[in-house]
Each structure stands twice: as structure tokens, then as C-alpha cells.
Write a structure and sequence with these properties.
Shape: globular
Number of strands: 11
Helix content: 25-40%
Number of helices: 7
Strand order of the largest sheet: 5-4-1-6-10-7-11
Distance between the termini: 33 Å
Order of helices and strands: EEEHEHEHEHEEEEHHEH
Strand content: 15-25%
Length: about 250
């Protein structure tokens, strides 16, 4: 298996932080939160990392330019996570192998968990592995829908979920392992047919499954690892978790 590449989504504004600082550059224990995600990707084997920037792109690039393994892709319009990943297509045109897709606001990610997703990709000869976790506190989170045999069917976003789907406790963590070629092939078929009118990266898994490709939903992460930072309170909570683990 070729070395994995990591894509890290870091283009959003996040008004809820109530700060002029780009969200991913807010510091936890003296480091920008996105650097913890870079660490986890490297620990999982990524030798090359593409950070998708958008809001205050030049500020994020300046903060991360000293990392030799980091390059940047620009998302000029915020049209959804699928659109953000598509901005990496040219940069990864020569890559034939696994890709981790991560978000820059999940600083509690562990490299061992990401490595486990990559191992699932290889062991199952899959084109997509969705990293999942379980929680009763699933408000606002995408749900993992499985068939009666437990096989992955699709990811449904909270705003698009039926009352029955809202009861599902297995959630999408926002961490994926993909075969690179299959990922960009699926992205060309994603449509903004949802209440947000956005291009969802999460639709790629269902698109590939419908083509008869192997897609696996693997509960390889804890809900703590999936904790995204969107507010100052969440930033403080993540700092407390890190200090208690230290």
C-alpha cells in the first residue's frame, strides 16, 4: 500500500467562536488546534498533508508554512465539505493510494485510530471507510444507517434525518479513509440535494456503495476524538481533556 495522504479541512469561518482568529488557529495548551490533527495524520503514516484553506487563507498558510510536509488548496467559496475536498483534486492527481479526510477542528484525534481506518481499508479491499463512534448525545450529528445485516447504507445528516433515523446512536465522526481515485470519481456525482444546499462529502460513501464498491463503517474512534471545537466553551473543554490525559 502506498503511503497515505491526508486532507485536512480548515476553510470554515465558525462564527460561534466569536473571534477574528481563524477557528483552526485557536490555541490549546500553546499550540494551534489544527497542529494536533497534523500530528495524528503523521502518526497514521501520512507523509504528505493537504490543508484546505478559505476564510483568512493567508493567515492559516502563514501559521503552518514551516511544516515541510504541508501544502495548501484554496476553497474560495464555502459550498460544503464535498466541494472543499474537490479543491484538492489537482494536487492529488498523481496520487494512487489511500487518503485520510479529516477536519482541522478535532484536536483529540489519535493516530492509532486513523491507522485503524487505513487498516480497515486494506483488509476489506474497500474504497471507503467511514470512521464512526456511538453516543446518546447525538444532537446535530450525522447518523450511520445500516441494513438489517449491519452493512453500511448511508450517512444521513441531522437536518435531513427522519424521526426514526434521529434515534440512531452511531454517528459519523467526520474521519474517512478513501481510495484516492474512487473519492474523486464519487465527488463528481455529488449534488446539493439537501436542506443546506451544499455538496456533502458524506454522500460519496453512498454513491460508491450504490456502484457495488466496498464501503465499510468502522467504529474505530471514541466520541471524545470526534469532539469538534466550534465554541470557546468547547475549546476550554478540549484543553481540560488534554491536561487530564497528560
Amino acid at each position: 500500500m502506498n503511503d497515505p495522504v491526508a486532507i485536512i479541512l480548515a476553510a470554515g469561518k465558525s462564527k460561534r467562536m466569536k473571534s477574528e482568529t481563524p477557528k483552526v488557529l485557536h490555541e490549546i495548551l500553546g499550540r494551534p488546534m489544527v497542529e494536533y490533527v497534523l500530528d495524528a495524520a503523521r502518526q497514521a503514516g501520512a507523509k504528505r498533508i493537504v490543508v484546505v484553506v478559505g476564510h483568512k487563507a493567508e493567515v492559516v498558510e502563514e501559521a503552518l508554512k514551516h511544516h515541510d510536509d504541508v501544502e495548501f488548496a484554496l476553497q474560495t467559496e464555502q459550498l460544503g465539505t464535498g466541494h472543499a475536498v474537490m479543491m484538492c483534486r489537482d494536487a492529488l492527481a498523481d496520487h494512487d493510494g489511500p487518503v485520510l479526510v479529516l477536519t482541522g477542528d478535532t484536536p483529540l484525534l489519535k493516530g492509532t485510530s486513523l491507522a485503524a481506518l487505513l487498516q480497515e481499508l486494506q483488509d476489506n479491499n474497500a474504497v471507503c471507510v467511514v470512521g464512526t463512534a456511538t453516543t446518546e448525545a447525538n444532537e446535530g450529528l450525522g447518523r450511520i444507517v445500516r441494513d438489517s445485516d449491519g452493512n453500511f447504507l448511508r450517512i444521513v445528516e441531522h437536518k435531513d434525518a427522519s424521526p426514526e433515523e434521529l434515534k440512531i446512536e452511531e454517528i459519523n465522526t467526520g474521519c474517512f479513509a478513501y481510495d484516492s481515485k474512487a473519492l474523486f470519481e464519487a465527488l463528481t456525482e455529488v449534488r446539493p440535494e439537501n436542506k443546506q444546499g451544499e455538496l456533502y462529502l458524506t454522500d460519496c460513501a453512498e454513491i460508491l456503495r450504490n456502484k457495488g464498491r466496498t464501503v465499510v463503517a468502522a467504529q474505530r474512534l471514541t466520541i471524545e476524538e470526534a469532539m469538534g471545537v466550534n465554541t470557546q466553551d468547547q475549546l476550554a473543554e478540549v484543553a481540560r481533556v488534554m491536561q487530564s490525559d497528560a
